[in-house]
Amino acid sequence: MNMLLSEEQRDALQELMNISMGQAANSLARLIGAKITLSIPKISDVTPEQFCTMLSDETVWYTRQSFLGTIKGEVIATLSKQGCDAIGQLMDYELPLTQDSLNELLLELANILAGACLTGFAEQLALNAKLSMPTMYSASNQHYHYRWASTLMMEVEFKVEVSQFDSKIVICLEENSVQTLLAKLQLLLE
């Protein structure tokens, strides 16, 4: 499937993503009392094979959350293994982190970031998307379970300045949802 966005659509989508990702960064910054910096949102068209390749970094943990509604897809969070103790301490977790408390911390962080990102994005376009609870995810090259042949992927990186912790939120839309998104974008641009 070819999902080439016009330059105008890509710019509008990047701006919408920038606003929603900023809301997510603000939510986390208030929770931990630390400054968060963001990358410029990256938008790309990927196949499941490309997606699996992207998820092969062993220096991060992955969480996965599906969402349903007017748009459907998944939010993948990558959370760096480095800096987790510093974030745990900022979030009042007892150190050293046990495996259970580490998983709880990672799921809490993913839920905060993914929830704020998806909610902000969907609200700006008057779309409905209900996010499931996050689960830890082990990436593999088995792409057969993805429900799409190609998808629009939107990602942004969050960095916590007082630690070496960073996270990336990746929103993947299913093929039909991409068409819904493009229609909403076009209405916004008219």
From TrEMBL:
Top-level taxon in the UniProt lineage: Bacteria
Keyword check for Metal-binding: no
The Chemotaxis phosphatase CheX-like domain, residue ranges: 66-143
Key words, A-Z: Chemotaxis
Domain (CheC-like protein) ranges: 8-43
Gene Ontology MF annotations: hydrolase activity
InterPro entries, sorted: CheC (IPR007597), CheC-like_sf (IPR028976), CheX-like_dom (IPR028051), FliN/MopA/SpaO (IPR051469)
Gene Ontology biological process terms from the UniProt entry: chemotaxis
SUPFAM superfamilies per record: CheC-like
Full protein name: Chemotaxis protein CheX
